[in-house]
Amino acid sequence: MKKKSVKPQDPRSPFLLELVLSNRCNLACDYCSSSFLLKDGARKVLPFSTLRRAVELYAGCLEENGLAGEGLVSFTGNEPLLEFPLLRRVVRYIRRAYPAMRMRLDTNGTLLDAGKASFLSRNGVRIFVSLDGCRAAHDRHRTFPGGRGSFDAVVGALRALPEKLRSGGDLCVWSVVTPETIGLLPESLDFFRGLGIGTVVLGLETYARWDAAALRRLKDAFRCFRSRPLEALGGCPPPRFLFGLSGASDFRGMIGQAVSLALDGRFYPCDFALIPPGGRDLSVGDLESGIDMRKLDRMISGPMFRRIERGCERMSGLRAPVERYYRGLSLGLSGRELSRDLRDTSRVNLLFAREMSGYLGLLERGERLATAPGFGDLAHSPKYSADKTAAAFRLRAGGAPLSAQRAGLDLFLYAPGRTKSLTLGFPAGDAPARGSAADLCAYSLAKAGLLGLKLAVSLEPE
Ligand code: SF4
Prior knowledge:
Layout: E1 16-20, H1 35-39, H2 48-64, E2 72-76, H3 84-97, E3 102-107, H4 114-122, E4 125-130, H5 135-141, H6 151-159, H7 163-167, E5 171-177, H8 185-193, E6 199-204, H9 212-226, H10 229-233, E7 240-243, H11 251-256, E8 258-261, E9 267-269, E10 285-286, E11 290-291, H12 293-300, H13 303-311, H14 321-330, H15 335-371, E12 392-396, H16 402-414, E13 419-426, H17 431-451, E14 454-461
Parallel strand pairs: 1-2, 1-8, 2-3, 3-4, 4-5, 5-6, 6-7, 12-13, 13-14
Antiparallel strand pairs: 8-9, 10-11
């Protein structure tokens, strides 16, 4: 199952190269966007030489734009693990020829085992396993060709992986939510909390219609996250829940940074490679001529994309309008139906922005803290501990490095006493110091959650 993970980059160079290895899949999910490829009886697999050439062209394109070392190659399907020997060869080639290139694999997980997972992990390939939630949610759409649900196969494969691989940062779950399964989200989140995976990314099914009743269920589901702010900050055991397109802020962030090599040996913008041809040439290069970023840029400022921009008030959030629109075109939908789809997409994204902006802010803060120099992970214990009960503490934020201030907070938080009060002062009008105070506040609350403390925090300008 394919997914998007894009971030704004230099507009003249693709951030991501997606390689569609074959048209084979061992599942028959009812929402599969590339099912037209599966129906095309003959097995089609891209040869190693084609894949290698595509990677060379991509790497050349990055280098021309001063972005060597910034690349990300994504392997997709239909189910790439059906072609594991080919995948292994391409991964080895990339690792040898472009040591800094990042790689990721999208898989339905049914064929994953310890041998494949450890090979991929050793070679720095991040694995995204499609798992839509609890059994009822997953098996609602993701079935084998005879109709049997694939939940047992996927969860069995994940549970059989060594703990280190399962909980390490290289393995993520990608979960697709649909109007039919959104009511099961609370149950699905609890299931994910017990699975031992570090990151779960939630996205919405691209082609489903979200009518008023489904949108109400979606709005209710957002409460599941908002009621657990510590989870966003990293103050709870994994997983961390992330959201499909929340990092992409505009059109270019969503589509202009990714190209796919399709089974016809041509490059396409992003996911168009997996949508039935819509009667117009949307390819942006081939193995002879290379990746044509100018054509991609022209396309993005062309009439079709302008129409999408006009019709979709909010592009990013949980749904991508472009793929959906183009799929509609290729299916022969009328202009009216296409406009309705764009409005539908916009409504979902606006709802997401309205309901989840606070939670996304906490996620960002948690991420910043976890990667701040010298700060360490949130679970990390202090070097020194106090013996005396500490019930109240005042700290002046700003000035000293965040890591030193963390050490002071840890002394207080780890000291005996279960009920505590913390005041974080900062010079009035000093925006960076206020930001540090807010970071330290977030850290203290997350840490208090981990340690089971009752903590009251106040921020005071001085
Ligand atoms: S696993 Fe992915 S490619 Fe295979 S049928 Fe399901 S959605 Fe389609």
